[in-house]
Structures are given as C-alpha cells and as structure tokens.
C-alpha cells in the first residue's frame, strides 16, 4: 500500500460500480497504454465462473487494486465485497489505490489510505497524467499541475501508527 509506482507489466484490478463503467473503461485504456495489465470484469470474467470466487482470485493475483469511488460505488454490495477482499490481500502486499471520481462518502475502512482525486474528470490531461504517474511512474507532469487541494469530505487522515 506504499506510494511507489508499479513495475512495467504490472497487474491492476479495477473495482467500480456498473454505473461508472465508462470511467472504468477510460482508466483501463489509460493504464494499458502505459504498460499495465488490467483486469476488468466486463472484458475478463471467465464464462461459467463462480462470480465471487473469480473476483477474489483476480484481486489476490493483482499488484494494485484500483477502486473507483463514487456515490454509486459506495452503495454497491459487490464493490463492498471487493474492498473487503482487497484489504485482506493488502496484508500480503496488494497495493490499494482509491480514485475519487465523484464526491462521495469515503468508506470507513479506507480512512487511512491516501486516495487520488479525479473529481476534475478524466477528460483533463493533468488528471490523466497524475494518475499514470501514481500507478506507472512513467508520466512527467509539470510540478504546478501536481499540487491540488482535495475537496471537503474527500480527505483521508495521514495518521501514522
């Protein structure tokens, strides 16, 4: 769950609400264009697989759990189950990256994980470049574009245990 970028050809699991599918597709395309292997249920779920087992297996096989947060995702039972699996896998090295697509209630179990603010929208080049840099480490962004103030209600505490 550190801040280091992923090595080339890293595996990313994208967790999202089906109502945010377009954003999930855009992020999948962005990560793949920068060398990451992305697992996204819409394209990659095996036919006849038992859904819960397949999701748990794919999360545990990934190096990064990319959680797309929105009001829809926070209310999704499936996303909640994926978060629980990811938190368990984080103890074994899985990195968790919450990406705030739209202002929403941040699930309590994620309160100590630094998230990525994408509320300006994925259409903004600065958002895309910062996200690629956060995940892949390969993008260069002018420093003035890297400073941002998270919107109220979307901050994670920076407590240290």
Task: Explain what you see.
- By secondary structure, the chain is α/β, with parallel strands linked by helices.
- The protein has a single domain (11-146), classed as Toll/interleukin-1 receptor homology (TIR) domain (Rossmann fold), CATH 3.40.50.10140.
- Helices cover 38% and strands 14% of the residues.
- It contains seven helices and five strands.
- The protein has helices spanning 21-33, 41-44, 51-61, 71-74, 77-90, 125-135, 143-146; strands spanning 11-15, 37-39, 64-69, 95-100, 116-117.
- Strands 2-1-3-4-5 form a five-stranded parallel beta sheet, sandwiched between helices.
- Helix 1 links the parallel strand 1 (11-15) and strand 2.
- Helix 3 packs parallel to helix 5.
- The longest helix is centred in the middle third of the chain and has 14 residues, at 77-90.
- It is globular, with a radius of gyration of 15 Å.
- Mean pLDDT is 80; it is low at 139-161.
Can you tag this structure with a few keywords?
161 residues; alpha/beta; Rossmann fold; disordered C terminus
Distance between the termini: 14 Å
Measured by DSSP, the beta-strand proportion falls in 5-15%
Q: What is the helix tally? A: 7
Question: Strand sequence of the main sheet, in spatial order?
Answer: 2-1-3-4-5
Top CATH class: Alpha Beta
The rough form would be described as globular
What kind of assembly state do the chains in view correspond to? single chain
Q: How many E-type strands? A: 5
Average pLDDT, rounded to a whole number, is 80
Please tell me how large the radius of gyration is: 15 Å
CATH fold-type name: Rossmann fold
> What is the total domain count?
1
